[in-house]
Amino acid sequence: MTWILQLVRDSIRDIVRHKLRSILALLGIVFGIAAVITILGIGEGAQRTVLKEMSVMGLRNIIAESVKPKDAGPKARRGYTRKDYGLTHRDLQQIDAALPEGSSTYIARILPETVSFGSKTFEPPIFAVPAAYYEIFNAEVEEGILHNHVHERDRMLVCVANREFADDLEVPGGVLGERIKIGLNYFQFIGVIDIPIHKGKPYVYVPLATADNYYSTSNFDRRESGSREFTKVEIGQIVAQVPTEALVPAGVSLIEKTLKANHRKDDYKLTVPLQLLESKQKTQRVLNIVLVAIALISLIVGGIGIMNIMLANVSERMGEIGIRRAIGATQRDIVLQFLVESTTLTLLGGVLGCILGVLAVPFSAQFIGFEGAITPAAVIVSLLVSAIVGLGFGIFPALNAAKLDPGLVLTQY
Questions:
Q1: Does residue 353 contact residue 31 with C-beta atoms inside 8 Å?
Q2: Residue of higher predicted confidence among 85 and 294
Q3: In whole angstroms, what is the distance from residue 85 CA to residue 236 CA?
């Protein structure tokens, strides 16, 4: 062990003696390792961001939504068009019966109504939901309260909204206690919430029982062309929650079979957060591999630079090599000497590259929109790679030095 430490000290001394040459040789390793660390950090941050985004949708949830089909539907006399589409209570009952034991289902209606506040009118999605809806989507209360079973039981005209809609109303003292008109009925604000699944757009939420009491599942629209459309949607959204993530694929299969049997047209869509997560993670892994492969090209270039430096060292130190061989050093000793020197050089570059990469990851967050994450494994792998580069590109110069004829070398130097 002592002789290895001596070789390392000699290597550092030689690096310091040839500062400019060593710095130039190190650049490829430093930037290559920094690129690997940065890419792995950004990739890890991206995976954590995706996991967080999908988790707020509930990895045990399977979400079915009503979708208006493309076909116009049967046209009646006098310009009337009738269209019944989307999820139904029959679907809900059959899904309830088919899902594994311990599963739960929740429904939401989406009210096609206009919201009025003073002289302003808005058209946000209006979700009529049960009180449990907020819990399954990890909603957080920012102001006031959520509606609860008392509001449901008494069919109270109360509502909550997300921050985006509350800000749109531009009420100086806050929206709590204010009244908005939804269709023909006035609702009082009782809370402002943050619900991750509905970020970026204004949303309003009312008790499901209240909506069932005051609003029909049918809607009547007059089009600009003068024709009129009559639509009926019983349920806007069904959220099925299975007991474990392992049961999600089976739950999806059962729901798909049920909906395909009940619907002749594509008037629904399924969203499975767990499948979305797995798909995004797979894409991210492939992207990481491609980017790391590109970064490794820089390491190869740096390794070629290390090999050139070591070959130059061999040429400059032929006298030293001849003397060491003459006083008893074996070819193995010479190989080890130059391998330790090249590995020390690349490890030094690896350490500097790790430092640069760790500094670059938080800086990159300004451009990519999310925080990167450095893991100990990424640092360890990067240092191992730098050592392997030193060994791989140092072996040729080391073997050249070991094969030199000591007698011939001493006569020339």
A1: yes
A2: 85
A3: 10
- Tell me the sheet residues that pair with 121: 116
**pLDDT above 70: residue 161:** yes
Decide the pairing of beta strands 115-117 and 120-122. Answer: antiparallel
Choose among 354, 361, 355, 379: nearest CA to 38: 361
In whole angstroms, give the CA distance from residue 356 to residue 350: 10
Mean pLDDT lowest for which of 93-107, 181-195, 341-355?
A: 341-355
Q: Are strands 80-84 and 228-232 parallel, antiparallel or unpaired?
A: parallel
Copy the structure tokens of residue 245. 């993530």
Residues in the chain: 413
Residue 262 · residue 91 · CB < 8 Å: yes
Q: How far is CA 378 from CA 274, 278, 353, 357, in A?
A: 26, 22, 12, 10
Arithmetic mean of pLDDT over the chain: 82
Q: Is 99 or 81 the better-scoring residue by pLDDT?
A: 99
Res 17: pLDDT = 72
- DSSP readout, 50-83? HHHHHHHT-TTEEEEEE---SS---B-GGGEEEE
- The residues with which 186 forms a beta bridge, in sequence order, are 181
Residue with tokens 């204010």: 178
Whole-number pLDDT of residue 233: 86
Decide: residue 282, CB within 10 A, 0-12 exposed, 13-18 middle, 19+ buried. exposed
For residue 390, how far is the Cα from the chain centroid? 35
Q: Are 208 and 159 in contact (CB under 8 A)?
A: no
Task: Say what the pLDDT of residue 227 is.
Answer: 58
pLDDT band at 146 (very low <50, low <70, confident <90, very high): very high
CB 217 within 8 A of CB 188: no
**List of residues 6+ apart from 218 with CB closer than 8 A:** 230, 231, 232
> For the segment 61-82, what is each residue's pLDDT rounded down to a tens digit?
899 999 888 764 555 555 566 6
